[in-house]
Structure formats: C-alpha cells, structure tokens
C-alpha cells in the first residue's frame, strides 16, 4: 500500500514537472516570437528611415545638377524616387517663397492670417503681436502685445524683443492658437529675409498673403507655373530649401524626414550644403 502511494506521489510530481516545463517552453516561444516581430519591425523602420534619408540626399543633388534641364524645381512638386525597394516621394519648397517672421511687412502677415481663415480683427492683432515680438522696446504697437499684455493673459513670459530664433517660436506669440498655427506653419520661415514671399516659388497660402494679388492672381500664377518649362523655373531656385522625403516599403512601413538646408555650391573641398533644421516624422 505504501509503495503504491509513493508511486502515485512520484507520478504527480512528474506530471507537475512536465506541466511546468510546458508552460516555461510556451513562454519562451511567445517571447522569441515577440522579439522576432520587434526585430523585423525595427529592421523595416531602419530601412524606411534610410530610404527617406537617401531621398533628402537625392534632392540636394537634384537641386545642384549642372544640367539645368534636369535640375529639380523647389516649388512643392512631387519627385518620385526608388531606393532599396522603397518608394520615396520628395517635395522641395524654396524658403524665399514663404512668409519670413523676421522680415515680413505687417500687410503680408495680416494677409497670411486672413488666408488661413482667421477673422479680420484677430488677423490684425496677430500681425501686430508678431511684429511686437521681434521689435526691440517695451511699448506695444496698436493692437500689439508686449510684456504687460502677456502678463494680463496669464502668461509667464513676454516677447523676445528680437528676431525669432525658430519658426516654432511663433507658437508663443499672444493669440496664436493651435488651429491657426497648424494652418500657417508650413508657410512660415526665418531664412528668406524678404518682406514678401517670392511668387515664383510660393505655395498657395503664401501667395495669398501678398497684398493686392487676390484669388485671381494666385490662380493665374499657379496656372502659369504649371505651363513653364521646368529648367527655366529651376534656374530661379534660391539657396535655402525645405525638403520632405517620405519612404514607404512594400509591407506598408513608412518613414518621413523634413530638412531645411542651405546650399553652398559645388566647390572642391567645400561642404555643398548646411543643415539648418532636421525633423523626423510628421510633427511640426
């Protein structure tokens, strides 16, 4: 009787041991599968990232091509590019076709905000606030905002009283809400130094900011731009551009890069470009 009982206990121990081993093996298999999936995801993301980076480099080369007929145009058109099995879409926008936060006139700033759907009164206030942000001194302009106005709005900061250090700094301007910022951000720059956008490269929103142009003028410029030979337009490219490259793999893995670069020319021993801003993903 004792022997049978001992055998039963031993059998239970063996069964429990086998069950524990099965659970452990199942856990290890699930862990290995998860790590495998993570490795494949990271590999795909890395491939997509470097394909997008290759797109940025291809755009820089295209902008500086010695053959004007094949030189890329910085007016926002899409250039397709394939790299290592990835399909890359590249767009280039010349910064001189945007509204410069540090140089734009009040009329241009007001026109930009109106074109973005901001009501007239608010558009004038935002324009004045942008000008007061960059202007030295403590006295606010009419409808503008200096330190007292920011304090009255409950903000712990005031205007820089100097040039904008980045495009993103405009988010801090009094009255700049998230909706307005999202609308105008793609049309803003700090690198053109122009009082108004260059109509040869400007996108529709920036074109609409130019005083006196109107909807008909914007439509005419865009229509003419589509009819002009690309090599002629490319000859008018500036030196500072924002390039966006989006790479998509066959499995749907996606990566995007946006870089603002300044061309320096192709000379022996000279870096052909300088990176002014680099962003990964779609966030502004």
Automatic annotation (TrEMBL):
PANTHER family: TYPE II SECRETION SYSTEM PROTEIN K (PTHR38831). The keyword Protein transport applies. Coiled coil: none annotated. The lineage of its organism: Bacteria, Pseudomonadati, Pseudomonadota, Gammaproteobacteria, Lysobacterales. It comes from the Bacteria. GO terms for cellular component: plasma membrane. Its main location: membrane. It is found in: Cell inner membrane. It comes from Luteibacter yeojuensis. Belongs to the GSP K family. InterPro entries: GspK, GspK_central_sf, T2SSK_SAM-like_1st. One of its GO terms (biological process) is protein secretion. This is General secretion pathway protein GspK. Residues 94-191 form the T2SS protein K first SAM-like domain. Gene3D superfamilies: EpsJ-like. Keywords: Cell inner membrane, Cell membrane, Membrane, Protein transport, Transmembrane, Transmembrane helix, Transport. Pfam families: T2SSK_1st. The keyword Transport applies.
């Amino acid at each position: 009787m004792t022997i049978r009982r001992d055998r039963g206990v031993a059998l239970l121990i063996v069964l429990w041991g086998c069950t524990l081993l099965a659970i452990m093996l199942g856990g290890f298999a699930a862990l290995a599968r998860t790590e495998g999936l993570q490795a494949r995801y990271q590999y795909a993301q890395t491939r997509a990232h470097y394909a997008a980076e290759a797109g940025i480099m291809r755009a820089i080369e295209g902008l500086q091509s010695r053959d004007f007929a094949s030189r890329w145009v910085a007016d926002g058109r899409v250039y397709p590019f394939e790299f290592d099995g990835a399909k890359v879409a590249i767009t280039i926008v010349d910064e001189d076709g945007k509204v410069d936060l540090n140089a734009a006139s009040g009329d241009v700033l007001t026109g930009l905000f109106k074109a973005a759907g901001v009501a007239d009164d608010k558009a004038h206030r935002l324009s004045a606030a942008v000008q007061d942000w960059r202007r030295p001194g403590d006295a606010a302009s009419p409808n503008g905002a200096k330190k007292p106005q920011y304090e009255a709005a409950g903000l712990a900061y005031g205007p820089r009283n100097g040039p904008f250090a980045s495009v993103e700094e405009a988010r801090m301007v009094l009255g700049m809400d998230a909706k307005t910022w999202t609308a105008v951000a793609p049309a803003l720059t700090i690198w053109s130094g122009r009082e108004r956008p260059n109509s040869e490269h400007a996108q529709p929103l920036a074109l609409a900011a130019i005083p006196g142009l109107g909807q008909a003028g914007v439509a005419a410029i865009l229509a003419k731009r589509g009819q002009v030979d690309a090599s002629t337009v490319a000859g008018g490219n500036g030196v500072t551009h924002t390039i966006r490259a989006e790479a998509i793999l066959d499995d749907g893995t996606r990566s995007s890069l946006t870089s603002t670069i300044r061309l320096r020319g192709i000379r022996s021993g000279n870096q052909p470009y300088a990176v002014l801003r680099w962003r990964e993903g779609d966030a502004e």
